[in-house]
Amino acid sequence: MSIQRVSSKWTKTNVILPNPSLSAYVPETRLYAMEHLNEMLAVYGTVYIKPDNGTYGKGVMRAERLTEPLPPTEEGIIGERTWYILRYEVETHTFENLEDLHKAVSHRIRKRPYLIQRGIPLLHHETCPFDLRVLTQMNLRKQWETTLIIGRVAAPDKVVTNHHSGGTVRFFNELVAPYLDVKEAVRLEQKLSKMGERVAWQLQKRYPRLREIGLDIGLDQQIYPWILEVNTRPAIKVFSSLPNKSLYHKIFRYAVGYGRYTASTGKPARTKKKA
User: Fold this and answer.
1) Quick one: residue 85, left, alpha or beta (phi over 0 = left, psi -120 to 50 = alpha)?
2) Which of 66, 67, 75, 175 gives a 20 to 30 Å CA spacing to 21?
3) Among 6, 112, 11, 98, which Cα is nearest to 47's?
4) Could you tell me the pTM of the whole model?
5) Along the chain (275 residues), what's the average pLDDT of each consecutive run of 10 residues?
């Protein structure tokens, strides 16, 4: 039986939200509209605008709302200047009003469905933001098991951390060491492992043939974990370069067990079209 895939970020978000043990970790997410853009920028200051169906960070944009006080008028009235910044790939554009920002975004997304997500101020490794990939798989006992937590550091000036966008892989302990002591890091790792398993279990209730997920987690300045995205076709072979070969062999063995790869050739098995 083929593995089930779910491409819509909006669908996956709405499957996760009813679970109270997970909803607190999901940043506010809405379908893209100018009204939603205005409201969320007013509340959060920064939002990410991402395609509902997309991979490798392609098409992701970051919008920011900035303000500064104006000199007082002769009547003593203090006003405020507001402007907006849009970043995508390595480009940055500035707009004096929301309408022009919306026009620029609309030009890029055209008629494709897009989402707006609360921007999380991510922790940095040196000068670049990073997030974490939590790989959770169906093990050989047909139980969900988190097999890997790895970090991804964004390339300079990029708004996403994906490897395909120039991001680099770093070990979990290396990234959190400046922020947590050893015991705190162990507790966070355990928490993220359980979170991956809970998300997989929640999604599997709707999609019974789901067998693997890649959970993208962002840590904010308070080391609070936010579920940024869930990938139902996570990268696996990219981890073959890890020094711990036994860990990769376990990950690959599980993937063979649930039918992503064939044992004889190591090549991908055929899977059902995405939902």
Assistant:
1) beta
2) 175
3) 98
4) 0.90
5) 90 97 97 97 97 85 92 73 93 96 95 96 93 97 97 81 72 96 98 98 97 97 97 89 89 94 76 48
